[in-house]
Specification:
With 783 residues, this protein is α/β, with parallel strands linked by helices. Helix content is 33%, strand content 21%. The strands form eight sheets. A six-stranded mixed sheet has the order 5-4-3-6-11-8. β23 (548-555), α14 (561-578) and β24 form a beta-alpha-beta unit. The longest helix has 35 residues, at 311-345. The chain starts with 9 loop residues before the first helix and ends in an 8-residue tail after the last helix.
């Protein structure tokens, strides 16, 4: 065969080549323009065209139309880029009734630690009030057992993400996954081969022989989660319809295991270690790891199941986050110590760093007797301490928890390089002290157990003295301000939204700080105390034109005619000076009852008004006003400040002339008074919230108890109680008179309050030590 020559001339060849190149360039430019111009504007697109829109449809067995790229949440449309690549895809199987509880808790906690994507699969038409990636599986309901839902979820994963992720995990909504541990574990396994990983199961004793499993067959338990490699999902994907149409049992995890064994040719991992990594909590009947969070198995596990209470998802997440923070702080301390050691080698004393000091329980050297740091003794039941008024007290749960957590960390350090691994059992007794500058010290007598490896296999108990020093890191300050929506956007029924203070929240803060505070003041007699209170009210509110109003509920039957006239005259002076709309007097009949007074005062306000229940003996500063406003959020939070209560000045100044006894109102030393941690009479809330919890119990008469009853109702409601020390509120001392006609419980509360306000126990002890007759001492007797 002869090959003929081209009939094109050289010049025409060049034109042909140039035209071809030019056409290719124009084609690239047009395709790029088309992709950038049109694709971002449509909800989804197929790979076959630049501007085509396709919608997903899920068939009876979970089949999904090919080319579907759109995942629909009720609030958002999630668009997956064609070139998306990731490490792990986690599919969580849930139901409509859990979308606003378990799903929210999971998405806001452990889901953020996953290196990849987490999506929640529910029944057709499922919706949530939160912005969460939810896939509503068509023709799938929430009936149990959920075989159809489970296989539909796997089909969805394979159709949408098979080429985008290395690993795929199927889990329930009551699981907690440690994303960092899971990733580290999977990085050590070849994902290009068929893998089916989880805690292997063969059924309960009652189910043996009823699950149609062979002698070497098993399945991965669904509760603790099952992990499939990309190759495994690829092998079973074409057969999912067959598997769901040929079920042998009602257990969806058993059927997935059977499908994987049949079409991928592999069982679930038989390794005994999987029981610890994919952990099922059999110790607690109700789950949620209420009492087992510090167990060794829980600390080392990758997944934790079950967590039936959504709030415990946050608790568990906070626990492991705090553990991570402690690890990072420990590394920070070690770096400080290395820097300090190098500075010592270089003999550079100018760069002394106290955080770089080696840990020691003898770091602090006192220079005087007053600087000596005492040690507290404790055992499993009690603690003996010089820091407590009562030298011996029961061991608090928080102290026991603290010691166990410290020892748990110490055991990790001890076992890290130890040939024999020890297990902590209990603290027999111990001593502890706290150096404010360097850290906490522990001397503990601890019982450990070690497993004997040779001879008889048994645990050997060993008692050891442990010396521990827990160093403090540098002080860190985090400033955050929580605010509500603008007041004019809030109604009694509308929910409130918290937001961190940012630049665009300045107007919200300003509006909140301008909000009017309605003081409600019960009063019966006490003219001089009322005159003092009104001077303070004028100084911090009226003269400064603060948005404040006061509603005075006056019991005329408990006040003499002269006292009533004096009180009305005082109010009249301020009304004339500042305006009558800022001060109001409501006269009440009958005997004094604080609950009745506060109820009458609250009814003078609208539902959206901020009310502040106060006593005439309270001394306020202007700074306290803003704390009342910011710490009280309608429909969300009630403010219960802890005020400082002064002791009897006659007792404090017993050994000196009254002219020399000047008591500073803002002197918060322990000998001057105490913080009323169990006082609930001073409170700030919105009237709508007061009405929501039933208001004050007006059947309570006389002194006390009405505040405790209201506090209990608020705690049992959906309102949050914000309780904190407020240095701008001081309860001035006044003699307490307890009426013997009071109800027994009220009378006992009154007697207790009267005794507490006398003086500190240390002061009273000093007084008693100076009275020889009380201690039955006779100094003249010679021994």
């Amino acid at each position: 065969m002869m090959v003929g020559k081209s009939h094109l001339k050289p010049g025409k060849n060049l034109n042909f080549i140039a035209g071809t190149i030019f056409g290719l360039c124009i084609g690239v430019i047009l395709s790029t323009w088309c992709r950038n111009k049109f694709l971002p504007c449509v909800p989804s697109f197929s790979r076959s065209g630049c501007c085509l829109e396709t919608l997903e449809t899920i068939n009876d067995a979970g089949n999904i139309a090919e080319g579907a790229e759109k995942e629909i949440s009720q609030n958002n449309v999630f668009i997956e880029e064609a070139d998306e690549k990731g490490f792990l895809f986690v599919g969580i199987m849930t139901a409509q009734k859990y979308l606003d509880s378990r799903v929210v808790a999971a998405y806001q906690t452990w889901a953020r630690s996953i290196n990849g994507k987490v999506m929640f699969f529910s029944s057709e038409g499922s919706q949530s009030s939160y912005d969460i990636p939810i896939v509503s599986l068509k023709n799938v309901d929430d009936s149990y057992p959920p075989q159809k839902k489970s296989f539909s979820m796997l089909k969805y994963m394979s159709e949408h993400y098979l080429d985008k992720y290395e690993w795929f995990m199927r889990a329930d909504d009551d699981i907690f996954i440690k994303g960092d541990k899971l990733e580290k574990f999977l990085r050590s396994i070849n994902s290009s081969k068929p893998q089916f990983i989880g805690q292997a199961g063969v059924g309960t004793k009652e189910e043996i022989g009823l699950l149609s499993l062979g002698s070497t067959d098993n399945y991965c338990m669904g509760g603790t989660g099952m992990v499939l490699s990309r190759e495994t999902l690829k092998l079973i994907s074409p057969h999912l319809k067959y598997c769901v149409n040929n079920l042998y049992t009602t257990h969806e995890d058993v059927e997935i295991g059977r499908c994987v064994r049949k079409f991928a040719g592999i069982p679930c991992t038989w390794s005994f270690e999987m029981q610890r990594l994919f952990y099922q909590n059999f110790k607690e009947y109700k789950g949620s790891f209420v009492n087992t969070l510090l167990d060794k198995e829980v600390q080392t596990a990758i997944t934790l199941h079950p967590i039936k209470m959504p709030t415990y998802q946050y608790r568990i997440n906070n626990h492991f986050t705090s553990m991570r923070i402690k690890e990072l702080r420990q590394k920070e301390l070690e770096l400080h110590r290395e820097i300090s050691a190098m500075n010592q080698v270089l003999n550079d004393k100018s760069k002394f760093d106290k955080y770089g000091m080696k840990p020691s329980i003898n770091t602090f050297v006192p220079s005087s007797e007053n600087e000596v740091i005492g040690w507290e003794f404790f055992n499993s039941k009690s603690v003996s301490s010089h820091l407590n008024v009562n030298p011996r007290k029961g061991l608090n749960a928080y102290r026991k928890h603290c010691v166990e957590e410290v020892l748990s960390q110490a055991m990790e350090i001890i076992n890290e390089n130890s040939r024999l691994k020890g297990d902590f059992k209990e603290v027999l007794y111990g001593y502890t002290s706290t150096d404010p500058l360097n850290g906490a010290n522990y001397i503990l007598d601890v019982l450990f157990t070690y497993r004997k490896l040779k001879g008889k296999n048994l645990n050997v108990p060993v008692t050891r003295h442990v010396y521990l020093h827990q160093s403090f890191t540098q002080t860190e300050f985090i400033e955050s301000v929580w605010t509500s929506l603008k007041h004019n956007m809030i109604t009694a029924e509308s929910p409130h939204v918290f937001s961190h203070f940012r630049g665009n929240d300045e107007n919200i803060i300003e509006d909140k700080l301008k909000e009017t505070i309605h003081f409600i003041l019960p009063l019966a007699g006490k003219v001089s105390e009322f005159e003092r209170f009104m001077k303070i009210f004028e100084d911090i509110c009226l003269s400064k034109k603060e948005n404040c109003q006061i509603h005075i509920v006056l019991f005329t039957d408990n006040s003499s005619q002269e006292e009533v006239e004096d009180i009305l005259n005082i109010v009249g002076i301020y009304q004339k000076k500042y305006g009558g709309h800022l001060l109001e007097v409501i006269e009440a009949d009958g005997d004094f009852a604080r609950a009745k007074a506060l109820d009458l005062g609250a009814k003078q306000c609208s539902l959206n008004d901020l009310i502040f229940c106060v006593d005439v003996d309270i001394i306020l500063t202007r700074e306290a006003l803003n704390r009342i406003r910011l710490n009280t959020i309608q429909g969300t939070m009630v403010y219960y400040p802890i005020v400082f209560s002064q002791y009897d000045p006659d007792v404090l100044c017993a050994n000196q002339p009254k002219s020399n006894c000047n008591i500073d109102v803002l002197d918060f030393r322990s000998k001057m008074g105490y913080w009323r941690q169990f006082g609930y009479g001073i409170a700030a809330m919105y009237r709508s919230d007061l009405e929501r919890v039933g208001g004050y119990d007006t059947s309570i008469h006389g002194w006390g108890k009405e505040d405790v009853a209201l506090f209990e109702n608020i705690v049992q409601s959906n309102l949050t109680v914000f309780r904190a020390i407020d240095a701008g509120m001081v309860h001035a001392y006044h003699p307490v008179k307890c009426d013997t006609n009071l109800e027994p419980s009220q009378f006992q509360m009154c007697i207790g309050s009267k005794a507490t306000c006398l003086a500190s126990q240390y002061h009273l002890a000093e007084m008693v030590l100076k009275i020889d007759s009380i201690l039955n001492r006779n100094l003249d007797v010679k021994v």
